[in-house]
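re: ur question from earlier - yeah i can do the single chain one, its not a big deal. heres the input i used so u can compare w yours
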Amino acid sequence: QVQLVESGGGLVQPGGSLRLSCAASGFTFSGYVNYIMQWYRQTPGKEREWVASISSKDGTTNYADSVKGRFSISRDKSKNMVFLQMYRLEPEDTAVYYCSAPRFGSWGQGTQVTVSS
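and the output i got, formated as tokens:
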């Protein structure tokens, strides 16, 4: 059974940094199959917004324009984990952040990120 568990959210001041983690289980990053792992975010009343993607096999990354140059997605194949390092955070980054494994249609429970002074 595929499970994704996010952690690392919290309250941070504008301009600050935060690192989110996503622990994946039920499949492995170390096999022959390539999995695209994604981060999304959502604020109340808005649709879920794609933030970043990474290929489990070769680490190829893609970013939404709104976070490009400030956020960095990475993965640790040995730990089956995906990370989202966020720099120069802005109040507009406030949202619940979700980890996703589209191949399985799986989502984590989300972790709240609040950027406020």
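The chain has no helices and eleven strands. not sure if urs matches, ping me
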